[in-house]
Amino acid sequence: MGERFIVSHDVGTGGSKAVLTDLAGNIIASSFEPYGVSYPHPHWAEQDPRDWWKAVTASTRRVVRDSRISPKQVIGTGFATQMLGVLPVDASGTPLRPAIIWIDSRADEQAQRLVRRLGGPRVIMAVAGAVPSGKDVICKILWLKEKEPQVFRETHKILDVNGYLVCRATGNMIIDHTGAGVTGFLKNKTREWDPLFARLLGIPLEKMPEVRSSIEVVGLLTREAAEEMGLEPGTPVIGGMGDVPAAATGSGALENGDAHVYLGTSGWLVITVDRPKNLGRNGIVSVVSADPEMFMMIGETETAGACLKWFAENFATAEERERARAVGGEMAIFSVLDETASRVEPGAARLLFTPWMFGERAPITDTTLRAAFVNLSLEHRREHLLRSIYEGVAYNLRWLVDAGGRAGLPCSTLRAIGGGARSDLWMQILADVTRREVEAVKDPQEAGAVGCALAVAVALKEYGGYRELKKVVGVRKSFTPDPGCCDEYEELYGVFRRLYGNLTGVCRMLNEGEEACGAG
Asked: What is the pLDDT of residue 361?
């Protein structure tokens, strides 16, 4: 058959990327297919699941065609997807409504009632390690049960994004153990549903799919799915995983205490651990890793690169746009903005930006919180606002790193992935603000898809164990803290930490209730 390949998919918020790799995760071809998000009401965010499948099939056909390989050379496939989605389907796998995606916070009321019913925040923190918010799976299911009872009655299974795609590919309804791990009612030790806790929460387990391992072959491509994807019927499909566990794999930060940061639309800090530990005060929770023997401590920030994209769309100059067009490519404008921001002194003339443009999960959990530029004066220029965005995201991540340090996990080196890891400026700012060495990995935007491809290889016994993958992932460039910047950043970080207490009440007054200002 000759050389063998894997097709994996990184199914995100704005689109799906397919990559064709060899068994070592080297990318042969990649293809991105975009789709949209609907915001029908304040705090709502939905997607048509059929758009996910269309994107998966179109991008798969394209990478196979562009690489000129035979579909018979593809030995397996899998999906790494956005997490915290809720999609009710009937017995045939047909969606009963649009998917409620991770950024949706409609279930705040259900979250507040659940917290009160279970004894208040302190009790829940002691039991679950984090207080539920309107963006969590439990609360979204309770919203569905309460607000759309007819849909809930007709629901055969509640799938997440990965579960829907596995169903379309194989006909089997499952949830991988990383997706199940963020529902709040999975037993971490056995990686099985917790019937007692589910009953306590009011979640009927008969509507939840079977939990399967991320690195288990859960089915074979059906003839219909194979034809749509341009692959061979019978191609193995693994259980797959959420985007964060896949990215952790693609970062190479797989040993106990290893950490990585992600800078994409959202952002996160993930610390790999052999024993789960929750830091609920900072929104950091432990969930199962794609590695069957490990766990991940996750602190996810809602908007990281999204803040920079907002600036680019609204404030990039005609000259900057023209330079980006001359370079070409979807990321070109950000390279141009890097050059602009690099001409501004560290600290942005003491202008601070809080990167909370759609609420926040970590380092603080607050769905009505919003962003702000603080200390803006007549002396500041547009360029200062731009640099303060890079720095504000770094301060937010430093807050998470500090929380890990207080828990005995110093994160002395941070692997970096996502589109932001292509920016030398942002990587250096992150190193200076956190006072850690930062290692930007090779092909950082493909970390999730490559991580999933490597998981397929593990599932097919091409590697002896999951942590063997650490030696496969390469580093593009390392960044060490600049002593000349660290003191300035240290002082401004201290001020940044005080801003939440001053902003939360104001944002709640502005954004709470039916007339709240939401995305749309």
From this structure: 87
One domain, residues 55 and 129: yes
Hey, is 33 helix, strand or coil? strand
For the chain, how many helices (H) and strands (E)? 17, 24
338's tokens = 């890097």
Q: Residue 11 belongs to a domain with what CATH number? A: 3.30.420.40
The arithmetic mean of pLDDT across residues 461-479, rounded, is 94
- DSSP letters, 286-303, are EEE-SSTT-EEEEEEES-
Label residue 454 by pLDDT band (50, 70, 90).
Answer: very high
**Is pLDDT at 130 greater than 80 in this prediction?**
no
Residue type, 341: A
Does residue 374 contact residue 350 with C-beta atoms inside 8 Å?
no
Same domain for 335 and 453, yes or no, is yes
In this prediction the pTM is 0.87
505 domain-assigned: yes
Mean pLDDT of 116-139: 83
**Helices 483-511 and 382-406: crossing angle, nearest 10°?**
90
Whether residues 439 and 482 fall in one domain: yes
- The answer to the question of residue 517 being in a domain is no
